[in-house]
Specification:
The chain contains 18 helices and 12 strands. The longest helix has 17 residues.
Length: about 450
């Protein structure tokens, strides 16, 4: 193989062939004049192709001269650029990040280079665990992550995963479009929503069996719509923890900002990138703000059309969790069966659900909820969202700390009577949301009586 680069010129096995061949046109002349069979590797040749009509014309001459001569030209580039006049004469091959098989072999090679100091080799189970954690990264990025983990300890093991995941978070987040969410939440930390929890536990089993099931049965994802502050985002984090998968959030505001290129191209590339990271959970937060069909001929319309097709054809290892507040902005094509496995409506929590949410937030802050008569709080918190309950606990705890004493039941009540819930200030809008979702979505909580 003979290689060419703008900095090193023509080389074969590390030996410079022609020091003057750093000029792209001269390199192509060399290929034309070369006698015998060979493979010519042109590195980063997209720049000469973009800037020089002469180079583009000469490359077409190279194509004719290599025919039936056992001479082959391979162009590698970090960006895709194929001139129109060369499009029919070239084969384009896109190299995606390494799959799990490649990553397993890579991890084994890297761990063998580290002195063991009498310790046993890294087990196969740990190697596969690390390879799954590196899914979606290039080999160079994986090497950075591995070396950061090995810098914290003499060998790779399960204890190395936090360092690996932190490095992955930094590498993924630098794109500015996709964010790796490292903080997990268990289903037990979500108050109420028993219908949604039951559905997730059933689908988790199917998702874990995805490699042995028909693609029609493997869960694709769900859409959660409803009142702001009722725990939709918390549920998405719980889904990732329940499925034992990493969670990524796609930032539609960044995609439409134009800072990363044309929105439709950035969105398509981000979706492909997420498929490389599968298995994973992909979170579209407030999906109605970015993916709509309001402008069928504009960028949003094209992104919407791509999204509908992609949801049907994406890899089976990617579970999409979408949340929405402005459900009236969602087009019918988005919520029909087949796009998402189910559409859930998250309403204001019921009495027993509010008690459960109080217990969760008190326990999270190191307070024993059995010391409180939480049942009497239901009369003061009618129509409250989960976010308002959390703020009540935080405010009551703050009030107690300022007085240098333990929090009491009276602290919760005194704060509760001062809070005006969203259900009262937005009564008409919430009524509209409920009527819209009545026949279009499945309730995430049991049907209340008397509402």
């Amino acid at each position: 193989m003979i290689q060419w680069s703008l900095t090193e010129g023509l080389q074969q096995d590390g030996v410079v062939l022609e020091s003057a061949m750093q000029d792209p046109r001269a390199a192509l002349d060399y290929i034309v004049m070369f006698r015998g069979g060979a493979i010519f590797h042109l590195k980063d040749f997209h720049e000469p192709l973009r800037d020089s009509p002469e180079v583009r014309r000469r490359l077409r001459d190279v194509y004719d001269s290599c025919r039936d001569q056992r001479k082959y030209v391979v162009i590698t580039s970090p960006v895709k650029f194929i001139p129109e006049e060369l499009d029919r004469s070239m084969i384009f091959l896109e190299l995606r990040p390494p799959d799990q098989v490649e990553l397993v072999e890579f991890v084994r090679e890297e761990t063998e280079r580290v002195p063991r100091n009498g310790e046993d080799a890294t087990s196969d189970a740990v190697v596969y665990q690390i390879a799954r954690a590196l899914q979606g990264l290039t080999l160079d990025e994986s090497r950075y992550a591995l070396r950061r983990a090995m810098a914290k300890g003499p060998r790779l093991g399960s204890e190395s995963l936090p360092a690996l995941l932190e490095e992955k978070r930094l590498l993924i987040n630098r794109s500015g479009v996709i964010e790796y969410i490292s903080s997990g939440t268990s289903l037990g930390e979500v108050g109420g929503l028993q219908g949604l929890k039951k559905w997730l536990l059933e689908r988790r089993k199917l998702f874990q069996m995805r490699d042995t099931l028909s693609s029609e049965i493997v869960p694709k994802g769900l859409l959660m719509m409803g009142i702001p502050g009722c725990g939709k985002s918390l549920c998405v984090k719980a889904i990732a923890s329940s499925f034992e998968l990493p969670l990524y959030r796609m930032d539609m505001i960044e995609i439409f900002s134009g800072r990363h290129g044309k929105p439709e191209g950035v969105f398509a590339e981000s979706c492909k990138m997420m498929e490389d990271m599968a298995p994973a959970v992909l979170w579209f937060d407030e999906i109605e703000m970015g993916i709509t069909s309001t402008e069928s001929s504009g960028e949003q319309g094209r992104i919407f059309a791509f999204f509908l097709t992609w949801m049907q054809e994406k890899t089976r290892g990617l579970f999409v969790a979408a949340t929405a507040n402005r459900i009236d902005l969602l087009p019918a094509e988005m919520i029909r069966k087949g796009r998402f496995d189910e559409v859930f409506f998250v309403d204001i929590p019921l009495d027993d659900e509010r008690i459960e949410i109080f217990k969760i937030h008190l326990t999270r802050r190191g307070i024993d909820p059995t010391k409180f008569n939480l049942g009497q709080l239901t009369q003061f918190t009618v129509g409250w969202t989960g976010a308002e309950i959390e703020q009540c606990v935080v405010s009551a705890l703050t009030q107690a700390r300022l007085a240098d004493r333990e929090i009491t039941e009276q602290d919760l009540i005194s704060i509760a009577v001062k809070i005006v819930p969203l259900s009262r200030t937005m009564k008409e809008q919430i009524g509209h949301i409920r009527s819209w979702a009545f026949e279009r979505a499945v309730r995430a909580s049991p049907q209340p009586t008397g509402r």
